[in-house]
Structure formats: C-alpha cells, structure tokens
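Table S2 (text version). Query chain:
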Amino acid sequence: MDRTLNLHSGQRIGIYAATAEELDTSHLIVLAVRRGCRVYLPRIDRRARVRTMRFVQLAHGPLRRPVRINRLGITECEGPELTSARLLDVVFLPLVGFDRCGTRLGMGGGYYDRAFAFRHLRSAWHAPLLVGIAYALQEVQCIAPAAHDVPLDLVITERGVIRCARDR
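Corresponding structure-token output:
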C-alpha cells in the first residue's frame, strides 16, 4: 500500500475518523502526520442550505483543534476554516460495499458523492485520488451505479490494493 500511495510531505490528505462500525484509520492518520502530510477530517457544513461536506485540518501538538461528535456519530474538528474537497490530494473514504469498477456503497447520506461531484466534469484529470478502505468481504460482484455516484480510484483491503476499472 505504501508504495502505491506514496504519502509525502506537503500532501493534503482527507481521511475519516472511524466510528465503531468502520475500519480504524488512526494508524493511517499517524503515518500521514509522521510523513509531513496535512491531514483533514470531513465535517458536515450545517450552514449550507443543502448539507454538504467540507474538510477541516487536523492540527497536532500545541495547535490541537477541539473535536466533537456530530449528530451522525462522526468525529469532526472544530474551526472556521472549511476546505473544499477540490484542494485535497488523496481522500480515504469509508464504505459499506464496493465493486472493482469503483462503485461505492456508503451509509446513504450522499455527502461524499456531493463533495466530489466536480469529478464528473473532468475527463482526464481525476484529482483528488479517492481511496476506499474496506474488508475484502465487503466486495460485491457488481453495483449498478447511480448517476450521482463518484467512483473510487483504489480500494485498500487486508488483502492488498485494488485498482478500480473505469469501464462504466
């Protein structure tokens, strides 16, 4: 996995703080910080008319930001500086299920699909890299994608890294 992602200093990494039902991301967060990456946690923007997801930088050491648990049970950083998903280099996403074409089943809120909808407008450049984190048993043969679904580029499981096909 490390060779595939090549996390390095200065990269902007979006990653979720795992709930009890999701794979633990704490070791990945520590690795990214140790490598000098700027780590961002997703936060539901309650000020928007349509609930959207933006990102807040996770500060370490003496600049620690307070965190809170939102109404969905998700850990979020406090702070006024909301960063757009467009500005991130790599984003690690939770999922319930996935297929090898990169179609992802989430928890049903649509926050990640709305946050990365701009990728539908790009034909060659697909930044940020979208990486699902899952157990291998969460893979299903085929998921019929909805028009709003934003495909994953990679999925990391305990069995290795899956590069998602772009044949749909």
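Notes on Table S2: DSSP finds three helices and eleven strands in the chain. Residues 2-36+85-163 form a domain with the Rossmann fold fold (CATH 3.40.50.10420).
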